[in-house]
Amino acid sequence: MVTSLQATTTLHNGVKMPWFGLGVFQVEDGEEVINSVKWALEHGYKSVDTAAVYKNEEGVGQAIRESGIPREELFITSKLWNGDQGYEETLKAFNTTLEKLGLDYLDLYLIHWPVPSQNKYKETWKAMEKLYNDGKIRAIGVSNFKEHHLEDLMADAEIVPMVNQVEYHPHLQQKSLHEFCKKHQIQLEAWSPLKQGQILADERLTKIAEHHGKSTAQVILRWDLQNEVVTIPKSVKKHRIHENADVFGFELSDEEMKIIAEMNKEERIGPDPDVFDKR
Question: In this structure, what are the phi and psi dihedrals at residue 15, rounded to the nearest 5 degrees?
Answer without folding.
Answer: -70, 135
